């Protein structure tokens, strides 16, 4: 891109959406990354960069153990990237008076530099006026190849009015040979160098690997795969390969600090053709070229650093690189790919910050949750998610991220993250329907918990007829090849990679063939237990359901009752009863050892070839148990309702993990409980009660497993016995109720842990409604008790200290005595924002919600200096035993910082409550695109996990963002965006008729002031220009429709003085238009809008309704 050299600001947003930082090396440090997208038919790399040196600090394939440039945490990257990252030296002058300059290392007087952050690329520029040199470095991930590579383009421009000869040395001072793990590099890098080898230098390529495996094992395997480096430069005669310089002593000589290239300073390396040491040392990957440049002339150097499964593949890669225009076309293509996916969230308004921020946030959202493809023939598409990965980067150095090095790549993710980040996907892909609801609902266990790690979908061709469908039409040779892959469980990405590598000739296009595979194959979600059971994971499923019903309001009953193919997840990790986790330690009573692995159950699950994690009948040995969504949700209700704490207020952290706030990790040991889950349980029970009220047959019912039925009966009786106390007609005995409910839950779990017996009982709708009414009364009472009468805020967390207990006579495996607790003393922790967020969801009037907002804004949860909302109030009066949050400095991480995900949840609830003025007031200082980038310290298009709050003593960094991008805040912002753009229910029922009725909540100044020609990429390879008039707001809806609002008066679409919809223009794909008057579009046109029949809809607003 062209940098606007007359731009005086240190940070600024360019007209094309790029974010520019001037003299970036002198600004606050930050870390970020390239998206890791190489297209559907490409192999991604992970690439992390910082605003020091030449940016890129580490990269590799798959995970940290397959680094090409060593992974280092952010703080070490800031220190090391200037010397161990990419380096460039430029020699000018004469032989008698040479001058060697290293761009980007240190800013010389009169030198300016810029960092340009784009969707798919990173660009650095430096202008050294005294030397007459301009240096530009661009990075991008090579797209749509059967190998992964990071491409680096270096351009040196002579800005003098006279010619000058330049010799350029460029590349990596250290490259990691394939075969060295992250642990080996950290603990024994010196010893590991003994295995290092570089091959192919004589062919002007370099292939780096260990000669053999480094493990101390009896069987030693030869390493075939390797990391490669190729450098070339375009010349008048064509593309010229440059000789790789792989011996670091050739470059640095005796300077082992890598500070100065003493070897380069002593001789010309562009013409070097001598011997190099290619083994027994960690190599480098550099190249040199010399050229005379006339005034304004450029020297361009391309280099690629990547991974190949075999050395034999390197020659073919080299030939590709030598094709004229190859890298230029690849750079255009990678930018086009990113524009295609991010244009699903196209937003056109007056405020460019908001538009570009929406695009970037959509990208970062699907990097966590995945992007849903529609694979298969039209009308038979199946959803398949790509591009997702667990959030891991330089600042999240603790996470073991993974990007699968295959076509249709995706990585692993945590249940809570993926579920939240897919919340709005139906608004961008109308063909998803209920796929995500089914995926996540089927991951809940009979005990109400769920696995942590989501690894994606697995497929299996169980029927011979299915195999014939997908193998028919292939040649005998291709059939034999593919049959070996499809005889075992597979992923579409692995199959696609195999097909491309083996050059198998398919009867249809690859996406359609994969769609056929997915249609005829059985599938399940591959998930693993991970690290524990959190108490909040289930609470996000209802959000997904509500999104679905915002588009399909007429399908509520069908969604919950019609589909009987839902399953329960089968786990080998059991939650212990109280008798096996309440212990006496030296510090007093604690809850520890809450989970155990059952080896026999694990053996049983591992023995299953297909659907290994689906609960079976006959106590785990029978058929897979299947039922509908309602039964899944009802089972969740029973488990959570029986898990209220001894005071009947919060949901117990009885499985060893806390809720959303991971940093309260000590609370489970303190018999902690959490009210956000109580509030979400109330919300879920209300939803189910409302759903049953809409069912036509009161005497109809639902079949549930016998074990679930007995659990329900016990809880129903207990609720009935508690009712008089809640009504003020009898004494309350919360501890007795807690003990009884817990016993019911423990008995139920013991029965269902192996699996269900297989028999079922029916519960009538009438009985279920009565049960839910009692549950609602109990939960509303719990929420009322959670409110602090002094502050008006809701308590979020409680600890419970046993004050009456006795040893049982038994001991835990580590010698701690088990105890039986007869009484607890409850302690409420200081306010947390989460409690207020969840309370907003269950308060029933707008007045209550406004009053709560006012109390929050006058409390310690509000940061007056920043105008933002803190995660929690002062914790200094709490014990360090509550968790690591207490150990953090105030304002840092999860101790009183501005935790963006939770703050955005709060802003979202303001919108949902209809508190529009309050939302817009808060948004001016709380939404990232409106922040001062000099304070924020990074691109205002990119989210951070948290901002340092004014509680912290480090005043100069108040408001600075830390931990880049892959935050749950992206999910919350897309929900905010949807409410602003089209309201909570774009489709609704008027009587029994479906209507399209958008209700945007847009302020008048969001509408454009001038007409715009906007380039939009509706298909993967082509874009087109659409006209957006003045006084308009436009966005892409359901993945296929451009919606344009016309507001000639540029007035708010909310509030007493708002403009109203008075007409629509629907444009078909053939260019025909339908003009309609009124505020809604009725059926059948409403259903056609939902199906994407109309590529463009114009909506007209006016003052009179």
Number of strands: 52
CATH class of the largest domain: Mainly Beta
**Helical amount among residues, as a percent range?**
25-40%
Tally of individual helices: 30
Low-confidence stretches: 1-7
Structural shape = globular
The domain tally reads 5
Work out the oligomeric state of the chains in this entry: single chain
* CATH superfamily caption of the largest domain: Glycoside hydrolase, family 65, N-terminal domain
Largest sheet: 11 strands, antiparallel
CATH architecture classification of the largest domain: Distorted Sandwich
| Span of the ends, CA to CA | 47 Å
Question: Strand fraction band?
Answer: 15-25%
Q: Provide the residue-averaged pLDDT.
A: 95
| CATH fold description of the largest domain | Beta-galactosidase, Chain A, domain 5
> What structural class do helix, strand and pairing data support?
alpha+beta
- Work out the radius of gyration: 31 Å
Organism: Capillibacterium thermochitinicola
Protein name: Cellobiose phosphorylase
GO molecular function: catalytic activity
GO biological process, one term: carbohydrate metabolic process
